[in-house]
Structures are given as C-alpha cells and as structure tokens.
C-alpha cells in the first residue's frame, strides 16, 4: 500500500514522540512492503513563531491532500496565561478539525494488564473495563460565536448543535456498539441545556435503526462520577464536544497513564491520528516523554486503512515493551529508559 | 438563637433524608436551647404535580423571608427522558438559585478515615486529601438564552459571564484559601472559551488583593484527570457553573460515597443547604437512602449561623455512626440499618 501522510509534530514533546511513531511506521513499511511517504508541516505555537499563523495555508492544503494526518501535540504556556493573546496555538487545531470536517473523535479506553497497578483506581474497579468514547468534534461551544465587549467586562460563548451534526456521529457510535457489547450511553445535561435535549431527541430517533443496541442516558455530572465508580458499565459513550473533552481525559486514568492513549478523528474524507496527551512543555527535549500513545496512534492509522495485521504487530510490540518494563518514567518512576529507547524497542520488535 | 428555616423536601428520596436532618436540628435545639421553626414547601416534580409550577410563588416567598433554606433533592425520570416536556423540576431549582441570588456553591471534599477503603481510589491517593470547590451558581450556560428552532432541528445555549459575577465569587474563594493552605486553582477552558479567558483575567486581577494566596490555572480536561490522579494537590478550586457541576460530582468519589456530601449555596442575603446527591427515585420509600449528606447539610447551616459548637456535635455524631458502622447499604452492602436508623443514631447521640 502507498500512503501519503501529513505529519504535524507541533509543540513541546510533540516532535520527539511523533518521531517514534514514524520510526514504527517505517519499520512496518519495510517488513510488510508498504510505502509510507511522510511530509512534515507546521501547526501550533511553532507555526505562530515561524509564520504568525497557527495553521498556515500550506499546512492545511497538505492535510487536505494526503491520506491521513499524524499529529503530535500543540499548546504553549506563553499563550495560556495571556488572556489577551489574539492568536493561539489551539486555533490551528480547531481550524484543522473544522476544515477537514473531522466530526468524530474516537478514544478507546482499556487498561493494560501489566499496568493495572499503576492506575490510581483499585484493580477490581478497572479490571475488565473496555469502552470507547465518541466525542463530537466540530460543533458545540468550541465553534459557536464568541463575544467580548469593548470594555473587556462581559464575554460569551455560544453552544450550538443541529440535528444533522448529531445524526452523523450517532450512526458511527451505534455501528461501533453493534460490533461490541451493544450498549450505548448518551451523556448530556438534558435537565438544563437545550442542546442536550436536542441530542437526546435525535439520538433516540437514530436508535430506531439499531434495535439491537441498548440505549441509555446519563447526565454529565453523574457520568463523571460513574466513570470512576464503575467503568465496567460502559461500552460505547456518545457525547458532545466539551463534555467529551472532559470525560475522555478523565477516563484516561483508568488505563494508568494518559501517555498510553491514542485517538482518531474522522471526517467524511479525512482522518487524523494523535496521542491524546498535550504538549507537556516541561518535558520537552528531556527524552522522558512517553511515545507509546503516538506509536499507538500510528497503529490506529494502519487499522484505518485495513492494515490490521500490521497494526496488531505494533500492539504486540507495545505490550511487550510494557511487559518487559521498557517504559518511560510516567509508568515506572525509576526507569532508565527514555522516549528514544522505548521507540527503538518497538521498531526493533517489528 | 431563633431561626426560621424553609424546608423543601422535593422529590424521590428528598423527603426521607430531610426528615433525618430535621430530627438532628430538633435535637440540637432542645439540648442547646435554640428555636428552629421549620416551614415545609413544595419544589420540583412534586410541585409540578400539585400546582403545575416547579417553584410556586408561595415557596419562593417563603424562601425569601426565612433565615435559611434546607433542600432535599429534585428531579424525576419522567421529565428527563421527555425532551419535549415544557416544565421540568430543575427549572424550579434554577429559578430559586437565581431569585435568592445564590451565586456561590461551596462543596468541601475530605475522605472519612473509617471509609477510606470504600473509595474506588487507592488509599495512598486519597488519604490526606482536603479541598473545597467554589462553583459559580447563577451564571454560565445554565442561565443564558436558549433557543430551539421551529422545526426542532437546531438548538443553542449561551454561556455568558460578566466581570462582576466572576469577581464576587472569586473574593469568597480567595478568602477561604487564606484560611486554609493558601492555594487557589482556577479551572477553565481558556484555550477555547472566551468566557474562560475573562475568568482568567478577572481572577488574576482579584488575586492581587490576596498576595499570600498562590494562584494557578488548570484546563478543565486536565482538572478532571488531576482530581483522580492526585487530589492532594488541591486546596481551593474555583470554577464556573457547568464545570463545577461536573467536577464536584466527580470529586465525590474521593470520599467514598456521594451520600456523604453536603453543600451550601450562598448569596448576599440568603443561604441554601442541601445534600449534593440527586433524588435517586429508585430508592424512594425503601428506607435505604443515606441521610448523612442531609444531616451534614444541617450542620453546615448551624456553622453558617455561628453555632460552631452545635455543628461539631453533629460532625462527631456522624463520625461515630460511621465508626460503629451504623450506616446505609451504600457504605456497607450488608448493613441492616436504614435511613431511619442512621438518623435515629445521630439524633440520639446529640
Ligand atoms: C488543545 C485543546 C484545544 C483540545 C481540545 O479541547 O479539544 C485538547 O484538549 C483535545 O482534547 O484534543
Ligand atoms: C439538578 C441539577 C439542575 C443540578 C445542577 O446541575 O446544578 C444538580 O446537578 C446540582 O449540582 O445541584
């Protein structure tokens, strides 16, 4: 197979972890005879620094014309604590999601056997948990009109949803539930928000096409609690953009480390793969960042293009790295292995 | 002391747990020579059923003219799964918060020693955790304009904040931090939301009045993770309405049971005390609901009026109930004690 992949290393630890993902893909390409062509481009703070624009035209065009996008991480504290910054790294990411029409972000959550003890949750709570979060990614308060009055004393964010936006991701989520344990939990705040009530109505309607899937509803405050009290109750979780942002990061604690979790964002034509962790600037250049989430993002990419066998080799390699404790300090505080060594182990295994 | 207290038992288990809180207050009144006059009124689904209005005029007037409000819980599934319901129990609660100007909801989080094992989190994670969440309660998406187009295919919720709304709760939160470990964590989504950027700016400004308090910022997705990974890092958390709703329910898992947590909502003139759990309709009338959160809400009420000694007696009684395992099934699955027995134990102890 020939694949052209746009690579956006981004900020902080992005470049180092993405390098390891590329190495894994190169190794796969060699062994299984695929040609992966990578083209790097700028996005995030690094793009602002070099071009003034968090998503330069060139980067966007590249992403629109490749088979897939592999993203590291974006974000820089120098923008976070400056409420007056006019241009911010995140705008690049949000614009990219919108322009590529990446309406569904999908995050699988499952603890690794060998890491069960490193979760803050008790073994009996997380052992056997296995669910997937479908987060709507191009709507809601992320993209609604924002206002700030001239005096800078009054601000607003509009959260909007249309039936169409809810319908398309709902179908994806129900289809996924059909292939799993046939349960879908819709998370919303329908007792307060009008958009949530629309979500409930539309999801109920879509569910008629999937009579074999059991649908239930949870308020987001309760969901945030249930994820920790009893994560095994979930199979597929479906929710809007901001709730999905919060709940999927929260759910990462179940796996023992956010450094292990990849996600895929899907549109009609495009797909983007990334680790879910952030740019973690304090760790930049120290060879301590966990590359596994990025390597697994590469595996999701392979799966997306039907290269299941190849993806499985990566999953296997990562399992071995964890089993042999070839892991970074987030998973083993006294580890002598760094980003490079973990990445090396994985590509050698392939 | 003479206190006139409006009691709104509400829906589901509300009436049963509130009864136990009243019993505790009666006992305190007798022993310490205070006169607590209770006046019950309707709010929630029960008010809709009887009057068509989730917050009847009479209830509102009563609350405006009493020293404090003691609330059970509101909510009924018959409204939750009907996106077309025009009147819902929650509207009563939201209207009450608005009319009484209850702009700050305060929830202390601290695990009980005797219950540490019943948390889904490991002992070493939660032992020693002790923080308070300040949630803004009369602004944000809860109260902004809501729209639904005629075809019912497009909905919106507006999240709005003004400098003034942010300033008043910030002062409360900073003052509380000064009396505690002098750390305040502002939780927002300033990398995406305009309202969050306003929060950051205003809180930074208010912080100048409290140079002894260390201020830091966390994005809400990260905060949802940090609450579970390392709850001991927090002292005072300050956040907007919806984020506070999610995070404070999530944080309840640290204490081992949501059935233990009371909260107080404060305005310039009024104060409302309630358990943070919901109406839990499945448990209604079964004598299995945990009354402790409501009893502790009564203790918070006493503290609010300076009756510290009396409040401490209640805290002590609750600790004893937990120590002697006179608790409901949420805390001890094979318990033979119910709502009444736990309430009885506490008032006898007084
Ligand atoms: C960086 C930020 C804008 C982003 C989001 O909130 O969507 C991130 O938290 C994520 O979840 O991918
Ligand atoms: C019942 C509901 C409207 C309410 C809220 O969301 O504020 C509840 O969850 C709470 O936290 O008091």
Automatic annotation (TrEMBL), chains A, B:
Main location: cytoplasm
Catalysis: reaction(s): (2R,3S)-3-isopropylmalate + NAD(+) = 4-methyl-2-oxopentanoate + CO2 + NADH
Pfam family, one: Iso_dh
EC category: oxidoreductase
Record's keyword annotation contains Oxidoreductase: yes
InterPro entries, sorted: IsoCit/isopropylmalate_DH_CS, IsoPropMal-DH-like_dom, Isopropylmalate_DH
Domain of life the protein comes from: Bacteria
Domain Isopropylmalate dehydrogenase-like: 4-346
Site residues (Important for catalysis), renumbered to this chain: 142, 189
GO cellular component, as recorded: cytosol
Example of a GO MF term: 3-isopropylmalate dehydrogenase activity
Pathway, per record: Amino-acid biosynthesis; L-leucine biosynthesis; L-leucine from 3-methyl-2-oxobutanoate: step 3/4
UniProt-annotated location(s): Cytoplasm
Cofactor(s) recorded in Swiss-Prot or TrEMBL: Mg(2+); Mn(2+)
GO biological processes: L-leucine biosynthetic process
Residues annotated as binding Mg(2+): 221, 245, 249
Cofactor binding, per record: Binds 1 Mg(2+) or Mn(2+) ion per subunit.
Residues the record lists as binding substrate: 97, 107, 135, 221
Keywords: Amino-acid biosynthesis, Branched-chain amino acid biosynthesis, Cytoplasm, Leucine biosynthesis, Magnesium, Manganese, Metal-binding, NAD, Oxidoreductase
Task of the protein: Catalyzes the oxidation of 3-carboxy-2-hydroxy-4-methylpentanoate (3-isopropylmalate) to 3-carboxy-4-methyl-2-oxopentanoate. The product decarboxylates to 4-methyl-2 oxopentanoate.
Complexes and interactors: Homodimer.
Family: Belongs to the isocitrate and isopropylmalate dehydrogenases family. LeuB type 1 subfamily.
Protein name, as recorded: 3-isopropylmalate dehydrogenase
The species this protein was found in: Flavobacterium nitrogenifigens
């Amino acid at each position: 197979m020939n694949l052209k992949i746009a690579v956006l290393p981004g900020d902080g630890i992005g470049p180092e972890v993405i390098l390891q993902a590329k190495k894994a893909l190169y190794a796969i390409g060699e062994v299984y005879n695929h040609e992966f062509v990578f083209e790097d481009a700028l996005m995030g703070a690094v793009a602002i620094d070099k071009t003034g624009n968090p998503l330069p035209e060139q980067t966007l065009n590249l992403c629109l014309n490749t088979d897939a996008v592999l993203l590291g991480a974006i974000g820089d504290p120098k923008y976070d604590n400056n409420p007056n910054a006019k241009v911010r790294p995140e705008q690049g990411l949000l614009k990219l999601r919108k322009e590529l029409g990446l309406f569904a972000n999908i995050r699988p959550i499952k603890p690794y056997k060998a890491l069960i003890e490193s979760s803050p949750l008790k073994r009996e709570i997380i052992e056997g948990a296995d669910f997937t979060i479908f987060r709507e990614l191009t709507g809601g308060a992320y993209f609604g009109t924002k206002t700030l009055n001239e005096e800078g004393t009054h601000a607003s964010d509009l959260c909007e949803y249309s039936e169409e936006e809810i319908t398309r991701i709902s179908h994806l989520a129900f289809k996924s539930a059909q292939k799993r344990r046939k349960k879908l939990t819709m998370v919303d705040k329908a007792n307060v928000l009008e958009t949530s009530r629309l979500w409930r109505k539309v999801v109920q309607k879509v569910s008629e096409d999937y009579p074999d899937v059991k649908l239930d509803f949870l308020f987001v405050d309760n969901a945030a609690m249930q994820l920790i009290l009893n994560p095994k109750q979930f199979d597929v979780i479906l929710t809007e953009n901001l709730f999905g942002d919060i709940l999927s990061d929260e759910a990462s604690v179940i796996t023992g480390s956010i450094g292990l979790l990849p996600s895929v964002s899907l549109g009609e034509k495009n797909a983007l793969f990334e680790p879910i962790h952030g740019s973690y600037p304090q760790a930049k250049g120290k060879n301590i960042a966990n590359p596994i989430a990025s390597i697994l993002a590469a595996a999701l990419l392979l799966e997306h293009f039907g290269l299941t066998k190849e993806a499985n080799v990566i999953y296997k390699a990562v399992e071995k790295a964890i089993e042999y404790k070839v892991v970074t300090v987030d998973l083993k505080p006294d580890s002598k292995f760094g980003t490079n060594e973990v990445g090396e182990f994985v590509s050698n295994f392939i």
